[in-house]
Every structure is written in structure tokens, then in C-alpha cells.
Amino acid sequence: MSASELRSNPDNFCYRHPDRQSFVLCQRCLRTICAECQTQMPVGVICPECLREQQQSSGAPRARRAPRILRAVRSDDSRPLVTYGIIGLTFFAFVVGLIPGVGVAVRSTLALFPPALYPEFTGVFQPWRLFTVLLVHSGFWHVGLNMLALWMLGRSLEPMLGRARFLWLYLLSGLGGSVAVVLLGFGSTVVGASGAIFGLFGALLVIGRHIGANITGIAVILGINLVITFLPLLLGSLGGGGGVQVSWQAHVGGLAVGALVGGIFARTRTIRTRRLQVWLLGGTAAALVALLAVPLALY
After folding, report:
1. How many CB atoms lie within 10 A of CB 267?
2. Considering only 43-47, 81-85, 112-116, 204-208, which range has the smallest mean pLDDT?
3. Which residues are 39's β-sheet partners?
4. Which of 109, 187, 204, 236 is the most exposed place for a label (fewest CB within 10 A)?
5. Phi then psi dihedrals of residue 40, to 5 deg
């Protein structure tokens, strides 16, 4: 994005002071706010309107406004607790999976095996696999690299979006990856949170592009990961159906859904569009669930 495009994009200017350029978003309504309009909260910063709305709904005393210089420096000083919670839960599941006599049963119960979603095919109905697959990994390097990527991406996205929106993004991206596996790799057994991680990449790319941030680094990293994802397939080393494998289908599905959710967040940043945002997120989840009916028609 050129400098002229940055200056002409109204989303890059404070909604209360249109002459002041900023790239800091209110964590509740996602509108751009300058340093003067920022009030530091436990999770990111919020704008004056959201602050008044929060005070009126809770009856709490007015939050003390930090000095302007401190707000400008510490506007991103927040703890990504959802990110930390997901990382902790994933490592806990990984450690449990290492316990002799227990680990194999846990991994086989939590991994995504698409036929287990359909009583018509296997006689069992285990829908939790669509999400528990995010907790199961094939080895230390697999879980370590995924959680490192989650930590890096979560520190940027969670304070920007807020905890609830970030959790929606992670879960919908993971669901998108699982649905893609069901549609494109029905006979395979899949493990890993890579679908959700790719969804975070997609959302960060879309949101960054929308607010005019420099997304070159994210695009390069995403491109490298996509090459690594598809290289085994292009070389013909990716076998079909047998054993546990990290799935390119989950990567592509998670990336697509994450980009879609990021677009929803970027386009519904105002208080007036908050209800529309909820409906769009719910519609995305419903559409993904509806796609699970496709294998019944195909097989």
C-alpha cells in the first residue's frame, strides 16, 4: 500500500479526530482512535463511547485516564490470556498423550477421523473431533512450532480484537480446517492445530491490509508455510489415507475461513454493525456445519 493510499483511507484516522492518523483500534468496536481518545483497560484500549457504555452497563466508577504519553507508548500493553490458555491446554493434552497406556487411547479419541462423524458409515457419532483435533500433535516439534506461531500471532491479534473475538477466530478457523479435511481427505486421520494457526495468519493478513499496515512480512511467512505444506504433495510423498498425518486440507480450510472472519471483523468495526458481526459469525459457523452433509451425498 502506497503512502497516498494510507493517507486517503479514512479507516486509518481517528473517528473522533479525522485529521489525526492512527493504527490503534478500540478493542470493543474496532474503530481507529488516536492517543488522546485511548483509555487503557485490562485488554487493550477502548474509545470514549465504549468506555461510557461499559460504565453505564456496570455502574462502575469512571476509569482513570492514563497520561497521554503513557497511553501512546503502552496502547498495546495487554495480556493475551486466551492465547496463553490455548497454549497451556494444548501442551497439557500433549503431555497426557505421552503417558504409557493412556496416550494412544487419548490421541485416537481426539484426532480427526472423518468417518467417525457419521453413524451411517461407522455406527458412532463423535462430533467433538472437529475441535479436539486442535489439541493433538504428532510430536514435540509439531506442537512446539504450532504453539510458537500461536504465541507470536496471538500477541498481536488478541489485544486488537479482544478475547471473545479472538476465540471466535481461532475456533472458526479450526472448524474450517476440519471441514476441509472431511470434504477433501475423508479417509485420513489428522492431528494438529495448524488449521487454526493458518486461520490466524489469514485474519492478520486481511485486517492488516484493511488498516494499511505493512503486511509484507506476514505475507512472506505465510507463503513459506504454504510452500512447506504443498511441497510433499508436489513431490508425491504424501500417501493417502493411512496413518496419522499433518493435513494440507486443514491448512487451506483454516486459511480461507480465517481470512473470511478477518474480513468480517474489518468491515464491522462500528457499534452500529456489532449485531451484524454476530450474525455473520454465526452464519459462517452454520455454513461450515452445513457443509458436513456433503459426504452423505457423495459416499
Report:
1. 16
2. 43-47
3. 46
4. 236
5. -70, 130
**Taking phi first (over 0 means left), then psi (-120 to 50 degrees means alpha), and beta for anything else, what does residue 18 get?**
alpha
CB 244 within 8 A of CB 133: no
pLDDT grade for 41, boundaries at 50, 70 and 90: confident
- C-alpha–C-alpha distance, residues 295 and 42, integer Å: 45
Active site residue 78: no
Please tell me the pTM assigned to this model: 0.73
Cβ density class 142-178: b for 16+ within 10 Å, e for less: bbeebbebbeebbbbbbbbbbbebbbbbbbbbbbbbb
Q: Residue written as cell 460504565?
A: 55
* Catalytic site includes residue 194: yes
Domains of the chain as residue ranges with CATH: 3-73 (no CATH), 81-298 (1.20.1540.10)
| Marked catalytic residue, from 138, 178, 194, 247 | 194
Predicted local distance difference test score (pLDDT) of residue 79: 81
Residue 45 has phi, psi (to 5 degrees) of -120, 155
Q: SS3 string of 204-232?
A: HHHHHHHHCCCCHHHHHHHHHHHHHHHHH
Cβ within 8 Å of residue 62, ≥6 positions away = 51, 55
Residues in the chain: 299
Locate 64 and state its grid cell. 482513570
